[in-house]
Write a structure and sequence with these properties.
Layout (H helix, E strand, L loop, with lengths): L5 H20 L15 E10 L20 E3 L8 E6 L5 E8 L4 H5 L2 E6 H7 L6 E10 L3
Parallel strand pairs: 1-5, 2-4
Antiparallel strand pairs: 1-6, 2-5, 3-4, 3-6
């Protein structure tokens, strides 16, 4: 083997794996959608959030509210219900557990269907806006 061929072979050992990784990274990927059988109830409306003024206080379910946890308030879902909340503006989604009652009647009249914790609102990226259009899907009913 001539010395001038050595760099080309070394280059091939680097380039080929990189090309394979790049091509495989371009392959179509999709989030695995939940089957409709696993969604027990679904609604669309506005979400708002609550946090600092309620942090550490006892919720309607008797648990202490932690504004950084993934919890929510809903007017009628049983406590312990697990809900997927999807921000319709940016596609971000989180799962929260219903531990409190809310939103209040005023916001409900304005179309707010769920209050999420500050932590959930932050993950959904709507803290600055205060409210956002969401889809909520019940994944598991509480007690």
């Amino acid at each position: 083997m001539r010395p001038s061929e050595m760099p080309i072979q070394r280059l091939a050992f680097v380039v080929v794996p990189v090309v394979v990784l790049l091509v495989s990274g371009c392959a179509a990927r999709s989030k695995t959608p939940a089957t409709t059988a696993s969604i027990l109830d679904a609604r669309e409306g506005l979400a708002s959030y609550y946090g600092p003024g309620f942090d550490g206080k006892i919720t309607a379910s008797g648990t202490r509210f932690d504004m950084k946890s993934m919890v929510a308030a809903h007017p009628s879902y049983p406590f312990g219900t697990v809900v997927r909340v999807t921000n319709m503006t940016n596609g971000r989604a989180v799962e929260v557990r219903v531990v409190d009652r809310g939103p209040a009647r005023g916001p409900q009249a304005e179309g707010v269907i769920i209050d999420v914790s500050y932590g959930a609102a932050s993950a959904l990226n709507f803290v600055r806006a205060g409210r956002t259009q969401v889809r909520i899907e019940v994944l598991r009913w509480g007690d």
